[in-house]
Specification:
Blueprint (H helix, E strand, L loop, with lengths): L20 H7 L1 H21 L11 H12 L3 H14 L2 H13 L3 H5 L10 H38 L4 E6 L2 E7 H21 L3 E2 L9 H6 L5 H12 L3 E2 L10 H30 L2 E3 L18 H23 L10 H6 L2 H20 L1 E3 L1 H9 L6 H10 L5 H9 L6 H9 L5 H9 L9 H7 L1
Parallel strand pairs: 3-4
Antiparallel strand pairs: 1-2, 5-6
Helix pairs in contact: 1-2, 1-7, 2-3, 2-5, 2-7, 4-5, 7-8, 7-14, 8-11, 8-20, 11-12, 12-14, 16-17
Length: 456
């Protein structure tokens, strides 16, 4: 059976394959090979540019053009050729080296120095840098733009509904009113804190040999400052952050930091998905219908909040993957074991489920319509929430046991506007204070919620 969206084992490449195409060139096997070639090529160019490595003369413009084409415009045919080599070598990084040696035969000056391809490197030198490049591309070009789009879409809700009063619910029970926009603003602020942290996670790399001591490098060229060279290569040529202390492997702590930060963003969005699902259930939001869509196979009236449910489910899967990688990858026996290798092949899976979730949330947000009548009705049925301002004003003017008096009047009971007004009239308060309390309604007792919503 041929692989297709219908036959794929994972929904990432099957049912949801159209939503994850932006990640294929980054996190696929092709993407890994492409980045390995990029690292190997840049390493060879760095050796050629090093004044103390006379055996590799500076490359001509023609040689650099050939190498740059391999590094920057890597073709699927080249990846397929690597897989052909791998069927013989049973070693994926060695297969990349053989491809480059084959390509080097096109120019005598490259063919002459082909044994310097992969010079002094262990496979992990190439792999760790490739993974960092993949994560940078996936984070900066796919994930962060979608994260910002999600935050901006919720910000639009905050501004649009800044002045729409809403009954709060703490412990599921009626509480002091807020506005719908203010509750959206809370989410925006939380999401943007995580976006800032995700942006700032440094992506580390190393190229220091079999156990991190430049053993092979120094055996061939003991006079070269290989630490300085590695730092210049990783930071200058690749734009990553140099890690000076490693075993055979870069210890992956930064990957755990990155994935933990992404997981926090996802958890906040999951919280939002559930809240909006609840607001739809309460009738605070209606959902725009889409021509031809069916909500239930048996109940024609249904318009289900499926986008927020889809998002919630995929965020859960993404976080399960991120959390496993974050806890597993920094652990390696002694100077190296291979348990990280198979796990690292799943770097893109958490990204993919996150992308599916973000797009589902965005679709759900685009279909929301506020139901002002439902919001107003809920507020008008909960005059007891004004017990808070009344007892607070009573405290100001020295009335004894204000909390207890309001508790006796309201706890566990509904109360009408008239009953509250009558209670206010009995209080020994200045007339000006009574006027202000009588003017309060559940719809206008919202503090500075409007200002907060507009400022986010």
């Amino acid at each position: 059976m041929q692989l297709s969206p219908l036959t794929a084992v994972s929904p990432v490449d099957g049912r949801y394959g159209s939503r994850t195409t932006s990640l294929r060139a980054i996190f696929s096997e092709y993407g890994l090979i492409r980045n390995r070639v990029h690292v190997e090529v840049r390493w060879l160019q760095r050796l050629a540019a090093h004044a103390q490595i006379s055996e590799v003369a500076p490359f001509s413009e023609q040689a650099n053009t050939l190498l740059n084409e391999l590094a920057e415009n890597f073709k699927i045919e080249h990846a397929e050729r690597v897989k052909e080599f791998e069927r013989t070598t049973n070693h994926d990084v060695k297969a990349v080296e053989y491809l480059l040696k084959e390509q080097a035969q096109q120019l005598p000056e490259l063919a002459k120095v082909s044994e310097f391809i992969h010079f002094a490197c262990t496979s992990e030198d190439i792999n760790n840098l490739s993974h960092a490049l993949m994560l940078r591309e996936g984070r900066d070009e796919v994930l962060l733009p979608l994260m910002r789009q999600v935050a901006d879409s919720i910000r639009q809700l905050a501004h649009e509904f800044a002045a729409v009063p809403m009954l709060s619910r703490t412990h599921g029970q009626p509480a002091s009113p807020t506005t719908l926009g203010k509750e959206m603003a809370n989410v925006v602020y939380r999401l943007e804190r995580q976006i800032a942290q995700i942006e700032q996670v440094p992506l580390l790399g190393k190229i220091n040999g079999a156990v991190g001591n430049y053993n092979a490098h120094l055996s061939a060229y003991p006079e070269i400052d290989w630490v300085a060279n590695a730092q210049e290569f990783i930071e200058g040529d690749l734009g990553l952050t140099f890690n000076p202390y490693t075993t055979q492997i870069e210890p992956h702590d930064y990957i755990a930091e990155l994935f933990d930060a992404i997981a926090r963003f996802n958890t906040i969005l999951l919280d939002f998905d559930r809240d909006v699902w609840g607001y739809i259930s309460l009738g605070y939001f209606k959902q725009k219908t889409v021509e031809g869509e069916i909500g239930s196979s048996t109940m024609p009236h249904k318009v289900n909040p499926i986008d927020f449910e889809n998002s919630e489910g995929n965020l859960g899967i993404a976080n399960a993957i991120f959390q496993h990688l974050a806890s597993k990858l920094p652990v390696s026996r002694w100077q190296r074991d291979l348990t990280d290798s198979t796990v690292l092949r799943n770097l893109g899976v958490g990204f993919a489920h996150s992308v599916i979730a973000y797009e589902a949330s965005l679709k759900g947000i685009s279909k929301l319509e506020v139901n002002a009548a439902s919001l107003a009705e809920d507020l008008d049925n909960c005059w007891e929430v004004l017990a808070e301002p009344v007892q607070t004003v009573m405290r100001r003017y020295g009335i004894e046991n204000p909390y207890e008096k309001l508790k006796d009047l309201t706890r566990g009971k509904g109360i009408t506007a008239q009953a509250l007004q009558e209670f206010i009239d009995t209080l020994e308060l200045p007339e000006s204070a009574k006027v202000e309390l009588r003017a309060l309604t559940p719809a206008n007792y919202i503090g500075n919620a409007i200002e907060q919503a507009k400022q986010v």
